[in-house]
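Suppose you are handed a protein chain with no further information: no name, no annotation, nothing but its sequence. What can you learn? This example shows the usual starting point.
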Amino acid sequence: MSFQFATLGSGSKGNATVIRTSKTTILLDCGFTLRELTARLALVGCSPTDLDAVIVTHEHSDHCKGVGATARKLKMPVYMTPGTRMARDYGVLPNAKLIEGYQPFEIGDINVLPVAVPHDAREPSQFVFEREGLRLGILTDLGCITPHVLQAYSYCDGLILEANHDPEMLSFGPYPPSLKLRVGGDWGHLSNGQAASFLSLAQLPNLQHLVVAHMSEKNNSLAKVKLALEGHASALPIYYANQTTPSDWFSLSHT
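A reasonable first move is to predict its three-dimensional structure. Written in structure tokens, the prediction is:
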């Protein structure tokens, strides 16, 4: 089996991504109940018992709602920063592993590189996963693109990238003013234009798969995302992750 990944759901109602090799299976975030997670894993041919660990990016409920129950049921290691651990009551975590100082670590045969990002959480992290020279970057839940982020995600072979909102739709949308400022600010979420800028600025000559994720159901539309990103990923087909349906598996390989 090659280095693979699949999104189980992406958006404000729940997020989860599976990364696997023939030896190791990692769940990144668990914004679904254990029952819902089990159902979504089944749709991609997996079971909760296949999971070796779960990694939590930050403490917002759409990323960690099911972490405690899942970890207790499966007695599974949970990796998160100290800030993420302290920011929320997850209940008893039988095997909590703290990510100190954004230092890289290993789970099975996958190297995990935490990346500090600007987001309105206690100690948020996004991640780059590496195996045998192949790099998968997952980059959502940040309000702006920093030089550190650009460097960390360059030369990825696979990429899940946030395109959360269209600024005009956000401005005239249903959110209260304070939430509009939060979402659209430097510690909120990437707009379609910011996602396009990232693709223009990052060094991604080896990109095999691009998945656009965390699109707002109220402040964005698929048509606006496609218009903003058109031409920024050369001839590469783009998959648009959604809230309700898991993706197929994407495989990374040496070309």
